[in-house]
Each structure stands twice: as C-alpha cells, then as structure tokens.
What we know:
By secondary structure, the chain is of the alpha+beta class. The chain has helices at residues 13-26, 40-51, 56-63, 67-70, 75-82, 84-97, 99-109, 116-124, 128-143, 150-170, 174-188, 190-224, 238-247, 268-281, 323-331, 333-340, 342-346, 361-374, 381-388, 411-418, 420-424, 469-490; strands at 229-235, 259-265, 283-284, 290-291, 304-309, 315-322, 392-396, 402-406, 426-431, 434-436, 448-452.
Amino acid sequence: MVGHAKNSNKPDKSRIDAAIKLATEAHEGQFRKSGDPYITHPLAVMEIVKSWGMDEDTIIAAVLHDVVEDTSVTLKDIKEQFGEQVAFLVNGVTKLGNARSGMRDLDTYLPSTKDNLLRLLVATGSDIRVLIIKLADRLHNLRTLSALPPDKQKKIAKESLEIFAPLADRLNMGRLRVEMADIAFSYVDPKRYKELADLIEQYNKSAEKTMQKIQKEVSSALGREKIKFSINGRVKSVYSLHKKLAKHNGNMGEIHDLTALRIIVNDITDCYLVLGIIHSLYTPMTGRIKDYIAMPKQNGYQSLHTTVITKDKRIVEFQIRTHKMHDFAEHGLAASFYYNEQKLTENYKTGKIEHLPTNLLWITELQETAAKLRSGKKVDLKKLRLNLFADKIFVYTPKGDIIDLPTGSLPLDFAYRLHSEIGEHVIGVKINGKMRSLNTHLRHGDVVEILTSKNATPKAGWFDKIITPHARHKLRAQLAAIANHNNNLQK
Ligand code: MN
C-alpha cells in the first residue's frame, strides 16, 4: 500500500514538527464552525497527504496551507524557515483559494479550453502537488461539512462534484474520487443518495451467498494453478451508480457491475492467467472484456475487466490487476511519489518530471504546457488537446484485434480502417452482437463486426457517415474509380 512506513526518504521529522509548531501558534485562538480549534484542520490535511505517500515538502506545505491566508505569517517567513519549494506550494494553494477570480483571469490565457486541470495548473504555477494539497484540503472540508450552514454545504458539495471529484479522476486517484463524490452527492441530493445507497445495500445482501460461493470457486481454481492472489468484493459507489443509471435512462437491467470481485496478483502474466481461468469457469458476456492493461485509460488506470454469467445466472464483474496497478488505481498520481520518491520532487520546480510511469506522462506534458502559457508563450491548444486527451476510443474486431479510432468514429471509419476493400462492400454492422445503423457512434470497448457483400458498392451518401480522413480519402477514390469505369462503358 501507498503510504506505509518503509519510505527510503523518510520525511525529516524535525522540519515537520517545526511546521506544526508554527501553524499551531499562528492559528491560536481560531476555531472552525464545528467548534474545534482551527489547527485540527491543517493537521488532518497533513495526515491525508502523508497517507497518500507524498514527499516532505508537500507534507509541510499541507500543515501551512492556511497560514498565509488566515494569519499574520507571510510567504517570506515560510521561505526563510522552510525553503523556496514549500513557500511555492503554499502560495499555490493560497492562490487556488481565490480560485473564482483566478479562473476568470485565465480566460485571457485559455479562451478555448474547458479543461479544469490545465486551468488550475496555469493558475497555481504548474506544480501538480499544489492540486494534491488542495484535494486533501477539500476532502477534509467535505468530511466535516455537517458543521456548516445548509446553503454553504450545498455550494461546497456542488463544486466538489463539478470540479474536484473529476480532478481526482483525471489524476487516477480512485479512492479519493469515490469518497469525495459520495459525500458531496449526499448533500446535493440527499433523497436520491439514500435511495441508491439502500438499493446497493439490498442488492449486496441478496447477492451475498452467491458471491461467497463464486469467491470460493475462483479461489480454489486459482489455488490449483498455484497463483498467489488476494480476492475481495468491491462495492459500487453511490454516485457512480447514479451517473450510470442516468446514462441508461434509469434502467437497472443495464447495470452489470453492482457486485464486482477484485483479484490482485503479483504480475501481469498472472492477470491474464486469472482472466483465462475465470472464463473457463463462467460464460463471459460478449463485448464486456476490457483490457486496460494493454490500453490504460487516459488517466493511467490499468486493470482487466470482464463480466461473466454464473451457473445460477448471476451477472458478476471481475477486475484483475497487479498490486502496483491497484496502488495506482487507488492513489493515482500520488502513488508515483511513493514509487519514485526523490526523483520526482527534484524535477518539480522546472515542471519536468521524468520518472512518471508512461501511463501518467500526460501530466508532464500538461505541466510543461501550463509553464509555457504562464511565461506568455503561445501554445496550440487544439494540438495539445488532440495529443493529451487523446480523443481516442479502442474497439475490437470479433476476433479480438484492437483498433483505435478518434472519438466519434462510425462503423464505416472502422471498416475502412480494417481494409479499403472491406469498406467498399459494407452492407451493415453488428455492434456487441446487435445490428446497428451505420450512423451509430462507436464506443470504447465495443466489439464491431462489419457485414459485407461482394456485390455491394460504396455510396456517395457515406460521406455523412464518416469522420476519419483516411476513410474519406478511400471512399473518394473508390467513387471516382466507379465513375470513371461507368464513363468508359458509355464511350
Ligand atoms: Mn484549508
């Protein structure tokens, strides 16, 4: 787990103690709405970033994050006592405190991006640690939200759902995202929250026996193969159920991952082995196998997912991953501090992090972009969005080959990508086993089967059903060839 004690760069306790002393004295006589001494808040924020495995400067900045805003301690004091790095971080968090006006200023830099992470990075000096402290700050404020008056509760909860939980998701901090979103949602829509929480509880109760049985079956099968593993249930969060239901018009029949089992193993080979064993025990659902190991999600998330139907007709999702992937799924960017420690922090000031795992390299790009923008350099945001947010989807052929396409692609884009001759003879498409129209937008993880007929010919109307330049180009050439051929026949 991230944040356990065996850290080779053990934080310097005397520096942290000095920060605690300074903050305690500075906040002396201040109280929170709950009646607790104010210092309880920065200390709690410190514990949170510590538990995420963050570096020493971040821990110290967490302790001091409110002193410049709320007490007579100045940035200069902090710089003198704790160094430039800590001062820089505290300054960033303070600026973020004034996020509203800050965000408005950003419109001059960033007229065309709605990306909150980039905006925040530009606002705070392009150091992602500032955002990590801010996330910890927000988490503690949410945990203690009950002390505030209702109108403030709603405002903070709403903002958390709109900005901070998605931010945690962008940084692949899964555990944080879930906790923030669920607390916030319980204030934004308490009735719905209760409904769904009850529903999840009921469902889990009803599924308990089956799940135990499945867990046993899987465990003994894995044991026979001598695989070292741990297995446990993961409960779906209320907010993610709410969002998923909204996507499926409230249809519970579409929700297949209310109960999921998570299997954690030592290495990637074992992940695929386990997947195979599960598929030999139960029937996998078509189109529901997702290989986020070969193709991590944009936020760096890695895991194998599969949804199966058991002998007694229950639908169960399995998530299979290594210990390291699990740490990253729970703690995301923060986990990289644990794995890379010093190397990371040294490079932070310049915005260059060279030791991030490849699946998080987009953060480096983003920080560099933010730094450029701040120093007044021109950046082509359109190009950036294309690269960074890699507006891509990955879909499968029926044989399981992976094809990547731009978001918004349609079946003909897929067909022409496979082969121009396949494109030429399309008569229809099956997506996840069902006939669909050629206007259907493909989605990440779809299994796409193109139906062809030798006698079918391309149509000019297809230009409306294509978004990729490649397909457009091929179609144009084919239509020209046909026209040419017809001309020759008439001559
Ligand atoms: Mn605070």
